[in-house]
Amino acid sequence: MSRPERPPRFWEALAVVLLKPLMLLLIKRDWRGREHIPRTGSVIIAANHLSWTDPVLLSHYLYDSGRWPVFLAKSGIFRVPVLGKIVHWLRAIPVHRGSAEAQQSLTAARQALQNGACVLFYPEGTCTRDPDLWPMTSKTGVARLALTTGVPVIPVAHWGAQELLPYGSKKPRPFPRKTFRVLAGPPVDLSKYEGRPLTAALLREATSDIMAAVTRQLAELRGEKPPDVPYDPRRAGRRE
User: Fold this and answer.
1) How is the chain split into domains, by residue range?
2) Is the separation of the CB atoms in 187 and 152 below 8 Å?
3) What are the tens digits of pLDDT across the range 103-149?
4) Where along the chain is composition biased (Basic and acidic residues) (predicted)?
């Protein structure tokens, strides 16, 4: 039977056999909100981004919640021998940042959603540069995708991946064993945007609503108050 929203069974089984035991060995789990992850049907997962490890850790969370995550990855990964082929077969979508092909990732994500996929989306586009690791200002692709498809957006926050592998570091810190905390919330209410022209201002507003929901989840996980205004790396004079 065709499963366009999932990889071939061999590659799925291989990824699970290789990665799941490793994840269980490396991390303790504090997973909450899995009842908000629909078991079937198209869904967009909007998450914060802390570390190069969190796509794999979040994929573990989503897989154990009954979904195979289709995630967006930098196009350079697809050019790495062997790894690029594996990532392709696992249904990852290449992101061509800063090029004329940049919109192709949204087109591919839209097609995946039409096939009933669970698409893992990082609206920030890269690991946060906020000094305290709160979500920063985000790109509008996730809002455009949600509003043009009508697919629900589930906000998912996580904390702990940065302790296993801090952003910018190539050396994992497996000891002592880290705890990966995840909290998913109910779908973001985007009903006030239905039927309205998709202007740049509207997309920014909808994106802010999505990231505010993710930030609230993260504040609950951390037991801390987030900043009133998201960090903007452009205003801070930093490259994204």
Assistant:
1) 30-221
2) yes
3) 889 999 999 999 999 999 999 999 999 999 999 999 999 999 999 99
4) 219-240
What pTM was computed for the model? 0.93
Q: What's the CA gap between 177 and 62, in Å, rounded? A: 21
Q: What pairing do the DSSP bridges indicate for beta strands 43-47 and 93-95?
A: unpaired
How distant, in Å, are the alpha carbons of 29, 134, 152, 171 from that of 168?
24, 17, 32, 9
**Chain segment 147-186, per-residue pLDDT in tens:** 999 999 999 999 999 999 999 998 999 999 999 999 999 9
Beta-bridge partners for 70: 119
In angstroms, the CA 47 to CA 211 distance is 8
Structural contact between residues 139 and 207, judged by C-beta atoms closer than 8 angstroms: yes
Two tokens at 195? 């039927």
- In CATH terms, the fold of domain 30-221 is Glycerol-3-phosphate (1)-acyltransferase (3.40.1130)
